Each structure stands twice: as C-alpha cells, then as structure tokens.
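Hi P.,

Sorry for the delay on this. The queue was packed all week, but I finally got your sequence through. Input first:
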Amino acid sequence: MAATQIETVSTGADKAKLAAAIVLAVGGFVAFYLLGREGALVQWGALIVGLAAAVAMFALSESGRRLWAFGRDSWREVKKVVWPTRKESIQMTAYVFGFVVIMAIFLWLTDKTVEWVFYDLLLGWRK
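Then the structure:
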C-alpha cells in the first residue's frame, strides 16, 4: 500500500495571515455598505482596496504560495496539451450532431411503436 502524506496549515503566523485576509475581505464589504452615502466612487474604492489587501495578505501566506505554485504548474500542463485542429473539432461536432439526430429518430420511432402496440392493438382505444 502507498504511504500518504497529510499536510496541515503550518504555523500560528500563517493562520493569523489567513484570518487577517478574511477580516480584510469582510471589512471591504462592510465599508462598501457603510459608505453608501459618500458616493459610488468612494464605495467601490473601499471595496476594491479591501479585497486587494485581502488577496495580498492571502498571497503572503503558505496557502497562497501553494495556490500560486499550483496555478503555475497547471499552466505548464495546459501548454503540453495537444489541442485538436479546427478541422478535427468541426468533424467531431458533426459526428455528435449526427448521432443526436439518429438517436432522436430512433427514440421517436420506438415511442410511436409502443404507443401503437398498447393503444391500437391491445386496448383498442383508437379507431
């Protein structure tokens, strides 16, 4: 069996940074609603400053650094993907649409056949 590693939030300082990020984000939203009388520019400015400070504080934490590293690694992997050409995409889309049309006709014919068997042959409700 493979050994698994469990990672937790490391230090008290890191937890404090995450808590500060949450407080800054909530503070930005509170400022947005409390500054409603000051005008839209001040209101939105307070929200953007609060959220930007929260993002900066989160980026300084260990969780933020790991998230940034994950994003960098993910972008590297996306660059390795061999994307289909336009012609291949159009062909596969046409295959899917063709299959959907064929299945729709098949299901419609099956429904009408079952309807005919039950209502006309077995029950005799239609004439």
